Amino acid sequence: LGKRITGAVSGLVRSDVVDDKALDNMLKEICAALLEADVNVKLVQSLRKSIKHTVSASPPGPQRKRLIQSSVFNELVALVDPQTDNLFKPKKGRSNIIMFVGLQGSGKTTTCTKLARWYQARGFKSCLVCADTFRAGAFDQLKQNATKAKIPYYGSYTETDPVRVSKEGVDKFRKEKFEIIIVDTSGRHRQEEELFREMVQIHEAVKPDQTIMVLDSSIGQAAEAQSRAFKESANFGAIVLTKTDGSAQGGGAISAVAATKTPIVFLGTGEHLLDLEKFDPKRFVARLLGMGDVQGLVEHVQSLKLDQKDAMKHISEGVFTVRDLRDQLGNIMKMGPLSKMAGMIPGLSQMTQGMDDEEGSNKLKRMVYICDSMNDRELDSDGKCFVNQPTRMTRIARGSGTSVREVEDVLTQHRMMAGMAKNIAKMKKAGAGLPGMG
Ligand code: GDP
Ligand code: MG
User: Fold this and answer.
1) Which CATH number fits the domain that encloses residue 53?
2) Are residues 371 and 276 in the same domain?
3) Ligand 1 within 6 A of CB of 336
4) Could you report the predicted ipTM of this complex, rounded to two decimals?
5) The pTM is what?
């Protein structure tokens, strides 16, 4: 998808004048790419209309190019961002029940554990309940995952009624004052109606504060019907899109959001416990547009100043927080092969010296996990709150599944960039301009 759309847009942009014929050709290309990526036909049509409407009102001069680029981007963002502002936020000091639904194999059990760990790392006492009594081995799988993540769990080898198991588990953990209780359900049944009936019953028994549908990003055109069916019986309030590390283009997810008016909240980006990312519509689209076209993405992201904005603003003021470092690392990872990208961050090429692309990007990933295990205060700090704080470092190493040594590496990298930011601000004040920047 990315390649074709980027191609259509940039091919057009090479010529100076964008007449109506060129515009029509471009729209045709984009729509073909979207359809190929399994985006719903009706959505594609409305997207086309909308872009055409926006663009044709402008004169065919140079500004028109920019308008085309931004409206393709914005329209795609609007498709994956239903703009609901009643997003679920768990509250500390009470039991928040989260129920997972979705087809077998979509990634529920894996994602349950990831999410429990995610909340755990943010200071919520979290646990898991296995209500999948249909599939043999389901409880063992959850048990194994939970043990690895050091998350308490509940389930049964003998009880066959999922409604009873889930009620027992939730009641038990409620009494024990757990703050996040995640209920994993089955995704298959002898018959489809039975699965949906079961979901309704579990829902009534545990009264979840949040229901999440897990969707495999390779679902394709079936996404619309499937998500509608789940919405009707389980009325989920959020979607987690899994396996985004695979080759699927994710067009189905766009249809699921549009059909159910429900936001995607997280992305599953791998099989590992830590492969969970908060969903960001702009980043998602930037990545979609930039796939297979690294240079294009870099330029595009720079022109949008997405995540760079705060970091750049901070740098010019001489401030560089740990969160700024995390954003920079995240950006780099999304942009492609490390060998090409590490050079963009000073000091990083030293830290990843001698590593191949895979080792290097693993290192980057772990650095991001470390940042993600910090709380907001730590992220927004200048890093000094870690000095002589071994328990704090240990907590973060544990939460991110890394070592204290690696946490120190992140802080070293941060210190170095913070020092640079200070120097840049000083030079700027002295009127010396920015070497190598503009
Ligand atoms: P469930 O049947 O819905 O509970 O699905 P599982 O959690 O058992 O996952 C099915 C398979 O998908 C397992 O092999 C997982 O390791 C894999 N899986 C889940 N999420 C992801 C992901 O984000 N990326 C990748 N690559 N694999 C995933
Ligand atoms: Mg499962």
Assistant:
1) 1.20.120.140
2) no
3) no
4) 0.99
5) 0.68
Residues 110 and 184 grouped into a single domain: yes
Rounded Cα distance between 215 and 225, Å, is 12
- Give the phi and the psi of residue 58 in degrees, each rounded to 5: -95, 155
Nearest in space to 50 (alpha carbons), one of 78, 75, 32: 75
Pocket residue to mutate for ligand 1, from 108, 144, 271, most atoms within 8 A of Cβ: 271
pLDDT in tens, 153-174: 999 999 999 999 999 999 999 9
| pLDDT tens per residue across span 137-147 | 899 999 999 99
Total domains present in the chain:
3
Q: Is 185 in the pocket of ligand 1 (CB under 6 A)?
A: no
If you measure from the C-alpha of residue 421 to the centroid of ligand 2, how many angstroms do you get, rounded to a whole number?
47
Residue whose entry in the numeric block shows the structure tokens 């290192």: 363
Q: Is the Cβ–Cβ distance between 80 and 289 less than 8 Å?
A: no
CA of 38 to the centre of ligand 1 (A): 21
d(CA 82, CA 64): 27
Rounded to whole angstroms, the Cα distance separating 330 from 350 reads: 18
**Rounded Cα distance, 338 and 80, in Å:** 28
Amino acid at position 379, single letter:
L
Sign of CA dihedral 286, 289, 290, 292: positive
Index of the ligand 1 atom closest to the CA of residue 141: 8
Four-residue CA torsion sign, 387, 390, 396, 401: positive
Q: For residue 112, what is the domain's CATH number? A: 3.40.50.300
* DSSP code, position 58: S
